[in-house]
Amino acid sequence: MLHLKRVDLKTEKIDTLIIPVCEDRDIHTDSVLLSLVKQAKDLKEFTGKKDDEIILYNISGSKVDRAIFLGMGKVGKLDAEAFRSIAGKGVKKCITYGISEISISVPDASAVLLEDSVVLESLMEGACLGNHLFDKYKKEKKQKPIRTINFLVKKGTVQQFKHLPFKVATICQGTILARDWVSMPPNDKRPDQFARTISAISRKEGLKVTVFGEKELRQKKFGCFLAVSAGSRSQPRMVVLEHRPKTSRKTIVLVGKGVTFDSGGINLKPSGSLEDMKTDMSGAASVAATLITAAKMNMKQHIIGVLPIVENMPSGDASRPGDIVKSYDGKTVEIGNTDAEGRLILVDAMSWAVKTYKPHTIIDMATLTGACVVALGEKIAGLFSFDDQLAQQLLDSADKTFERCWRLPLPDDYKELLKSDLADIKNISSTRYGGAITGALFIAEFVEGQRWAHIDIAGPSSITKADDYCSAGGTGFGVRLLCDFLEKF
Ligand code: BES
Ligand code: ZN
Ligand code: ZN
Questions:
Q1: Which of 126, 154, 182 represents a domain boundary (last residue)?
Q2: Does 269 participate in catalysis according to the annotation?
Q3: Where in 35-89 does DSSP place strands (E)?
Q4: Could you say which of 41, 49, 269, 320 is catalytic?
């Protein structure tokens, strides 16, 4: 679907060409492109300012049928994200026009003061991610994704970056896979179904797949996990995915919260808070999609994905506030609030994974707290770790992929807030403040001594309004971040 191409615009016919333009400087070097841009800028209505756009048809001096000029503003303000956005915007526009093949003119990297690889990779990512539609549940499919997207580059660039289309497409397919899972309605992804879907794709890509059902979870004494599933008629599952290349040094475990619907349980959420709770399995979706992507890319690292999958429902069998349950590692936990269920399923999964695999590093990704959304908004995830190096590595990947994370503290004295009068620990804090931190501190109690990071993605896992390269629904946040991190691990 993505192609790198060198074309002679004087002689080759192009149906649709997207041309990014800056207001203060030429960012292309090809003479035909320069003349096309000049003709667009000669018109009053287009200056190249950010969000400016104009379409010209059959311009003289070229064989381009339709040239879509998209303004990017001032050169000095350009970064990788600006290129993702512009490509996503262009692709979305062409989808609405029903176009099946487009070309994007890739600006000269030195003119935009960035690396060739950054400009190219970002354009490809934006185009690929912007080309995704979630219309599975619509009888009439009004729009179709674009079939072929060509990236027009200079001589030499095609050869130098010939690996890039596959890499970008593979990673973005991972993001899209996670997006689709998150957007899927909760009646179609009850734990057994979701586990089967993940398993089938994972096996196809060569991952080792193990699935624990309720009986095994009971035998293994996953007390906290089972306390969450008790209220649902759907049985829980724990899916374990393993990518094990022939030679690998370090083992990394990724754990993803997989609550396919979070009603809150007996501490039932009010309406208004319930509608989005099908997205509470976003962590599991991103971790599963990352493992699948790692397998497709033959990554060199030994990676384990651990996905506790469950539905949190109220019923006569549901856990109650006040219940005390025993975790996999033997600690007693007082359930202060059945809506703080994510941490309960995570700690059992994580203790099991640490015991089983003795990993070098363990990272969990979870839509854990509304408090994290209050703190950082809907676009930035909370990052927690005692390990500065691990935190920095994740922050670097967050920067690179624009799946933004902000590190929050794990203060020792806040641990007190999780004290229980009767049990070893309580799953909620005694104050209503700092909920993202106390959520993370609860998990920390179960991974003592491990090289661990927790990423709270309650904000960025889904969006209600489409942006430049993502439609409303699941965002697949975390897949590109984790893939970048893993490649450097
Ligand atoms: N799944 C929610 C967190 C959430 C909130 C995700 C908003 C996405 C958007 C989680 O299980 C939850 O309900 N957390 C409670 C914790 C509280 C009871 C300590 C919360 O954040 O209110
Ligand atoms: Zn909850
Ligand atoms: Zn939840």
A1: 154
A2: yes
A3: 53-57, 64-71
A4: 269
428 lines ligand 1 (CB under 6 A): yes
Q: Which of 154, 178, 207 is the last residue of a domain?
A: 154
Specify whether 242 is located in the same domain as 303.
Answer: yes
Whether 105 lines ligand 1, by a CB cut-off of 6 Å, is no
Residue 44 is encoded by which pair of tokens?
């009053």
| CATH number, domain with residue 184 | 3.40.630.10
- Ligand 1 pocket check: which of 339, 378, 475 to mutate, most ligand atoms within 8 Å of Cβ? 339
Is any ligand 1 atom within 6 A of the Cβ of residue 369? yes
Domain that holds residue 286: 169-487
Please report whether residue 85 resides in a domain: yes
Residue of the CA atom closest to atom 16 of ligand 1:
340
Long-range pairs for 428-436: beta carbons < 8 A, 24 or more residues apart: 428/336, 428/337, 428/340, 434/371, 435/369, 435/370, 435/371, 435/372, 435/374, 436/368, 436/369, 436/371, 436/372, 436/375, 436/382, 436/408
Instruction: Spot the catalytic one: 237, 343, 404, 480.
Output: 343
Mean pLDDT by 10 residues, the chain (489 residues): 95 96 97 96 96 94 95 98 98 98 97 97 98 97 97 94 98 98 98 98 98 98 98 98 94 99 98 97 99 98 98 98 98 99 99 98 99 98 98 98 99 98 98 98 98 99 98 98 98
pTM: predicted TM-score of the whole model, two decimal places: 0.98
Residues 285, 308, single domain; the answer is yes
Mutate-to-test residue for ligand 1 from 369, 462, 477, highest number of ligand atoms within 8 A of CB: 369
**Residue 155 known to be catalytic:** no
Q: Are residues 79 and 116 in the same domain?
A: yes
Cβ proximity of 238 and 309 under 8 Å: yes
357 and 468 in a single domain? The answer is yes
